[in-house]
Sequence to fold (296 residues):
Amino acid sequence: MRFDWIWVFCTCLTLAHAEPRQTAKVGGLQVMEKSVFSQGEAYERFMGRWSRALAPNFIAFCNVRDGESILDVGSGTGSLALGLGAVMGDCRITGIDPAKSYVSYAQSRTHSRRIRFEIGDAQRLRFPDRSFDKTLSLLVLNFVPDPPRAVTEMIRVTRPGGVVAAAVWDYAEGMEMLRIFWDQAVALDSTADVRDERHMPFCGKGELATLWRERGLLQVEETSLTVPLVFSSFEDYWSPFLGGQGPAGSYVVSLGSEQRLHLEQRLRNRLRIADQERLITLKARAWAVKGLVPSP
Ligand SMILES: C[S@@+](CC[C@H](N)C(=O)[O-])C[C@H]1O[C@@H](n2cnc3c(N)ncnc32)[C@H](O)[C@@H]1O
Fold:
């Protein structure tokens, strides 16, 4: 994969001129306010590409059929909605996300009239009851302040007998890219532990299924979905963290340049990259759940 020097140069300029920022809580973690989900392109380079890799497995698990109307809750830069649109020519797909820049980035990636993105909050969906055949949410619920409320809303807007489904990365163990990152970050700076995404809710086996059953969904099924993460070089692994997206990127851009360099060096050693052009192959596991909406 070609290494994009212009992007790195712009990122370094951004870091050099970064203003000190306030901290905030996201998914129970301490993160840098406003920087967590704010730049579509940077998110796409960092995590969006792995969401895209995961989306086909999630779509298959949800048993989406062509012609259905689908709501994508927390659509981000569009990985799920656009992935669905590519394989289901007759589905009508709506993506909602509170991050304005992600919504416009996602919308800029399609000219299809069947796919649209808009600003919205999972906890207060604007749609009437029973609007969709399936309501899906990929890698989002752990970031929502009130997940039970979001699931109740997802159920409300889905027709009886329709499917409500979600997936969350297994940050504690199976999401190797971030597991390796946080292990090294915390080894260097124990105060980083409060930001480690392993503390996020719903990232362990059985947690999403429990929430689904508590909300009254029927025939609840949970599974693990695993995708390979192939990085063309150490730079391809490391440089997307500098875009400041998500809790890990937000942590990296909060560091001073010396601390950031130490972390980079630890990660380089951990990934044992002698030759920067060597491929790094990791795995990422997510837990996925689905259930049927009961009749009233
Ligand atoms: C890790 S990203 C996943 C995005 C996308 N689904 C994907 O797979 O690439 C988490 C997303 O959750 C969104 N989000 C955070 N709080 C939300 C809320 N209350 N309602 C809906 N989405 C939310 C963020 O803006 C962000 O786009």
User: Anything to note?
Assistant: Residues 1-23 have pLDDT under 50 and may be disordered. The chain is about 40% helix and 25% strand.
